[in-house]
Amino acid sequence: MKKDMRDYMPDDMPDDMQEEILRRIALKTKSGEGMGRLFAHPVDMLTEKPENVLIISVPLALTVFIAGMVRSVAECGIAETLASACVDDLVVLALFIALTPYAVLFTRESMRIRSIEVALPNFFRDLAGMNESGMTLPNAVHTVSDGDYGKLTRYIKKMDCDISWNMPFIDAIVRFGDSLGAPLAKRSVDLVAKASIAGGNVSEVLKAAADDSREFVNLADERRNNMLIYVIIVIISFLVFLFIIGIMSATFLQTMADAGSALYSGGAAGTAGGAEDTVGAGVGTAGSAGASVFGGMSV
Question: At what angle do helices 86-132 and 202-247 cross, to 10 degrees?
Fold first, then answer.
């Protein structure tokens, strides 16, 4: 059952102070939801999840593509624009604008989750050790909040702050697990919370959660090390492909264009050579973009 915020406040706090605190909490909560959060904290909302940045990057990419097409059509006409490599270049540029911010934030989020998963076994182990020594769980959380657990430290401090506001340990650790955003942390925290509700030996459960988390991290490291050689192969293959495309664009395509020009005369010569060069460049651009996208997905 969800508790009222007044249950977490000290009994000796004046009523007017409680009402003021609750009013500020309500305003803060309202500004942190929906469109209110987008206008109040745009950077925080767009970077909270990798997919949120697509709200900005996709419309920006479409704007660049449409503006480029309009300018090309105005200068060269529709037929020449569609026959040239301009469309391919604009598509690649639009994809780059749309996907690069997402890729950067996805990598950052993966590193954050990785740091949390690595620090989680040590946190559970330290918490279990202090609890076994006779320290209560809230006091143990307060003690370990002064330690260094990487990206996990600020979440531990936040849980300690929740407990200092008289929030029960079970509610605080459930909220702690929800805020991490890591599947491993959520599973381990649920295990600890259910053991605390059932009245079992919390220290043993914390040790079990630490061992489970450590085993998960070790298996992930082993799998990552085994896949490293394949990642290197994909990267080298992509670089070799780019090298071949660059050599063909610099030598072979120009040679074919000159040979085509020699077979024709007058205006037909320039048209034939230019068409071959344009088609080759377009194929190279599309191939490079496809290789980079699907190579990245395979990695």
Answer: 160
